[in-house]
Amino acid sequence: MSRLSSLWPLAVLCALVGVGLFAGCGDEAVPTSSGDAGTSKPGDAAATDEDPATADGNPGSSDDPIDLLDEDDEHRFPSAAQCGKCHVEIYKEWKESYHGRAMSDPLFLEFSAEVNKEECIRCHAPEPLREVGFETPIARAERREDAVSCLTCHQVGQNVAGPSKGMTGACQPIHDPAQTDPVKMCFICHNQHDTGNEWMRGPYAPGAPEPRQRPEMNCIECHMPEVERPLVPGGPVRKGRRHTWFGGHSLYQLQKAAKLEAEVTPLDGGGFRFRAWVTNVGAGHNIPTDARHRSFDVYVKLTESDGTVLLDPLDFAQQAKSQVAKYRLQYRNSGLKDTQIPPLARVSGLGRWNGYIDVPAAKKGNGELWFVYRLTPRDVLDERSFKPKNPHDLGNTQVATVVDVLKFTYGE
Q1: Second label for 271, Cα 20 to 30 Å away, from 44, 162, 234, 347?
Q2: Residue 285 to residues 211, 222, 261, 300: CA-CA distances in angstroms?
């Protein structure tokens, strides 16, 4: 028997594509991004709907208070673009994130077309979380194009909440410890498909049994990496968080989630059994999690030492035969068993999948295990699957992504 393994970095993917926690207002720290944000100038923070990403000049900050509940305004609260007048870099990150695009994501628009959209919108364009006491979210009646906006996560009455003390600024920031509480900030939406509970049951949660298998970590630490930079142009450099929320659309995050192992055992009468093991080494929740249309699939490729190809996942006629496992959260009412992989669990096939394939014709050669990610069941596996156009945003390409390839030998 031979067993080979390939281990990705053990950084924790942790629970969820967490709901945001901007650093409050006034001054804070989050990531540095490309380009010079410029310097702040008094009076530059006029509250308009002009997009700071395209506005002329250098946006700055102002200490003139912004009335978040101005009854004379046609809208109940400001737009994300208004927040971006001061918080330039954070706004750019948010706008490109799946929080900023939650109402324009093509997959969301397609998959919500035949369901109760209002039920979906309550998480894709929710009212400020504090207005519902961090309980069941309510869909906003206006500014839905702002999706999961700045004020969804930060507004508290006439103020803007953040995790840091002693802040000042036009948005009247106040300190609120809830801003770094994933149960309040993230679970309200990301526990719809049990992702939060998966983390709570796992080894990274505060209440994990002793002796702990892993140090305590939460959604924020994995999906909002810590960085240092000014919160506003010209402000002091502080520690803060990136507002990108990389998760199930990011190859970088997916590659940290699992370890592959190949187990080869001889068959009676000749040939070999090729078994694939997968361990969830890097995610604080099950993999995959949340959306039911996502899956991790495992394929086997075999090439004899004389060059004869016994199995090739890119050969459409052999693709189904070469697949040995599928891990996913099944659709409701499908009658199928969920086959997600819990944190630190090591599995080889779940549900109707064996996790292995017997090949009596195999004698001696080279093999590969492919760990393939599909955002939707229709995503095709072909040559393009090895070269995603944007590793941080796999997008709605309808092409599967090869996350990892483990090479091994047999018959030695």
Answers
A1: 347
A2: 19, 11, 21, 26
Nearest to 101, CA basis, from 137, 125, 75, 85: 125
| Residue-level pLDDT at 212 | 93
Q: What residue ranges of the chain have pLDDT lower than 70?
A: 1-77, 115-116
Tokens matching residue 148: 């999961």
Q: Alpha-carbon distance 202 to 225, whole Å? A: 21
Predicted confidence at residue 112, as pLDDT, reads: 83
The two tokens of residue 248 are: 């199930």
Task: Give the global pTM.
Answer: 0.82
Q: CA angle, 377 as apex, 376 and 378 as ends, to 5°? A: 90
* Residues 187 and 218: beta-carbon distance below 8 Å: no
pLDDT at 113: 79
Q: What is the pLDDT of residue 47?
A: 36
Which pLDDT score, from 0 to 100, does residue 52 have? 54
Which tokens sit at 195?
Answer: 């992702």
| CA–CA gap between residue 386 and residue 204 (Å, rounded) | 32
Residue 48: per-residue pLDDT: 41
Six-digit token string for 222: 């994995």
- CA dihedral sign, ordered 77, 81, 86, 92: positive
CA-to-CA distance for 412 and 272, rounded, in angstroms? 12
